[in-house]
């Protein structure tokens, strides 16, 4: 084979390989992410330092191409999910990303509330309106509103919550026109929309948007949580522990590196998350001594049960601790003996 033919065939093969890497399958692949220390990204004004560390854990999730799909099939701690298990019907990539970021924001608010209340510090909320989380196809808002818009007024009525918004619209009649005032990219806008029945429920009227409350928490001392582009609700427990640890003089870490996961509700309940196996792998690679896992009240197949199995499989010395509530986690850490 001549050199010219060899180079031509090589280039053709390279182009085919490159092009096929951009052909996405109707699947998502998740793999171990990272264990990230929280002290550098959470700052309570005048907060206390810690000897060890509290860490959130993540998974890496992405659309599958041919190569990532094959690799996931061959890898023990990568999982493949059909696209419909990850994204809602008709949900765009933009709406999915926004939903994950809003879930993180909600998680942060719950974590702050839980931590401050545990420390005996009062909490207040200021409501600013509602966020548009998604826009339904073939409804009046399509092409007029976008995910991320913050609605603060209908006609001349100011309102604070999604419930108030829904109650106001529900009193309208089919065909009524309403003026929506909203903020997009820091600029106030207005648009006129017609109230219409939903395609899948002709008895329900609306403009075709999915809403979530936009609110900010007011606490003293102030707290900043800088999560950048990390999405999802699963860091709630660890956020709450880091905030509480900075609010109180006694160091919960006792010099240990403590990773964990779990959603957090305003009442302190710790909830199940996805990707527990990948998070155990990530925490072990980061050198964590302890991992806090949602116990789900001892249910069969709980995050804790799967975490213990994964820890055994990878041969880690990391201790897996079950927690059902924020108080469970604090109680366990308060009774740790200082690391030698």
From TrEMBL:
It comes from the Bacteria. Pfam families: Lon_C, PDZ_2. Belongs to the peptidase S16 family. It comes from Bacillus methanolicus PB1. One of its GO terms (molecular function) is ATP-dependent peptidase activity. This is endopeptidase La. Its EC number is 3.4.21.53. Residues 229-336 form the Lon proteolytic domain. The keyword Signal does not apply.
